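Thread: quick sanity check before group meeting

JM: Hey all, I'm pulling together slides for Thursday and realized we never actually wrote out the predicted structure for the chain we discussed last week. Dropping the sequence here so it's in one place. If anyone has concerns about the input, flag it before I start.
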Amino acid sequence: MKFRFKFSKISLVAALALTGGAAVFAADDAVLDTIEVTSTSGGYNKVGEAKISTRNANQVKDILRDIPGVYVGGTNGMNQKIYMRGVSDRGLNITIDGAKQNGNTFHHNADLLIDPDLIKAVEVEAGAHSVVNGSGALGGSVAFKTVDASDLLEEGQDIGAKIKAGYTSNNEGFSQSAMLYGRAFDSLDLLAAFKHYGYGFSEAGNGKKTGGDGNDINYLFKVGYSFLDAHKISFSKEHMHYKGLYPMRAEFGSWLDGQLDNRKYERDTHTIKYTYKPGDLLELDVTGYHTKHQRIGSTSNGAKWGVETKGAKIGAKTKVNTGDFAHTLRYGFDYYMSENYVKPGNLTPEKVNNYSLYLEDAIKYGDLTVTPGVRYERHELKTYKGRAHNLSSYKYKFNEVSPALALDYEIGKGFGVFASYAKVFRGPDVMESMMAAGASRGRAYNWSVNDGLKATTGDAYEIGGRYKGELGESSSVNLVAKYFNTKYKNLILDNNAAGGVVGCPSGLPNTLCRVNTGGATIDGVELFARLNLAELGLTAGYTHQKVSYKDRVKNGASYLTSNVIGYRDQGDKYTFNAEYAFSSIDTLVGYNLIYFASKNTVSAGDDKNVKIPSYAVSDIYATYAPSSGKFKGLEINAGIYNLFNKAYASQAQRTADYTGDPNYVDWEPGRNFKVNVSYKF
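JM (edit): ok, ran it. Output follows.
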């Protein structure tokens, strides 16, 4: 069940006291706006602004790691890869304010950089359940929403500002940020935000260096204009970059080999939005966007590798009643174009054009909701064949119809059950921009096409149950259990090899080509529990998953591995959070635990059984946010993270095989004290 709430400005502490920190809903004067019932019921798939603040979040992993089904690791933003139900971020639909993010620059780097301070909410959809989630969502979707002026202005306020400073002890990092926001003529709202974060290398619990030595800079500009009651148009520009000294292979601890690299990685997102919401018969949302991800390497004389994506989407919702049946129709059109580039030269750019139409109808009859849907997708990839300057163009074309069906039934007394099926589809993407340069490791490429290449498809199933009950005026319990099973076929590999790749039609050495690598079945269990007892909030989660590879393609002594299925299984993930709000002194204290069990696992690339070690990491934190008096507007967040200075490498991060060589392990930071102080006025 998805809930949308209208927020009033309340104390952060008061909000957390009611929710146990899992998601911020509302206080006494919150107004329930709409209710939408889907098969993804549970209430643990949203992250609010309060959680981001109380956790002193510097990176994406700080806010997503305790969501069931989601794995994020890595020591710096350059390698913060997101995995969901065994699928990497290249097989997810990740958006910022509706703008699709296709990073695909370098497989050792993350595909997404975003500053948590600019996020007001994150909506996570683990798995495929609906045709609305967008194209390419093999493992689910992540929607980041940035802050608006209306989120910060108090009632009756027309202009405001927020300043913030922070410190992280482990890497001696200092951050400074400022926001200015306002409203004019009751229709025009504006926001400008800027942040700088400078830091050095971190130190792991075993004394090893980790992370990077750099400077992060980001800014956000937004302007919105409302007119004629139901219309609004808005523009935004958001920019973030990392600049400094990092391992050349960001997820490996390779500085001991002298492989440090001065580099800059940047991302830009531009959006223009139009909304028209006159009533239940029509809610219209039109978005146009332009995103750019690029890596600038000093070792290559300032060469730039990047991917640009331009797109537009039209989404609409209509609510109608026909007798005893209530319908919520969602329908729309999506288009995006992605193109890789290498500068200077740009000898071999590739381009994807993707068009899709979708229709979904949530039909409610009594306590039963049935949601059928269908999505049509046209996917084209323009590429090349040949060698060096003797190239000719080639186009892959795919057409796919993807149905989906979800069921949701309210049994009564707080109990409910749900189930869903969805067909998933992903066509071949543009080649990683560093490969698209036409040379790698000092050798020229043969560009080979594969007439028999098939798009990746899959069948995603989910079944589960929930319970939500009220224990008193300000106490409640929420329980969710899910089982999922997804069967993938025709996983795609984009690769190059000195000796040629098995499956490349040419069979030539030094060949860049795309091949199907077999399939995989991923199944697992996700559990979530939340207990609110007045000022005390307790939250726990559990994730178990298993990947079984099928029909893998041998390449010498190893197997060809897909670009989107995770490197290997992780052990079972356990999370626990406890928060207590001292309302009389506007203070919240919290404890957070994440534990990964050890596991004997096989990588996607070989049959070697490797034991990945277990670890447990504890955090404690506190928030002071006065709700009244002369210090109203002040907020102090402080905490000690990795309290017991555990030396560990995240199971959610691709490290070098856990072979026992500590030089190639991306060790997570050891004990780290964080403090952030902000003031709104």
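AS: nice. The domain at 2-680 is CATH 2.40.170.20 (Maltoporin; Chain A). Residues 1-41 have pLDDT under 50 and may be disordered.
JM: adding both to the slides.
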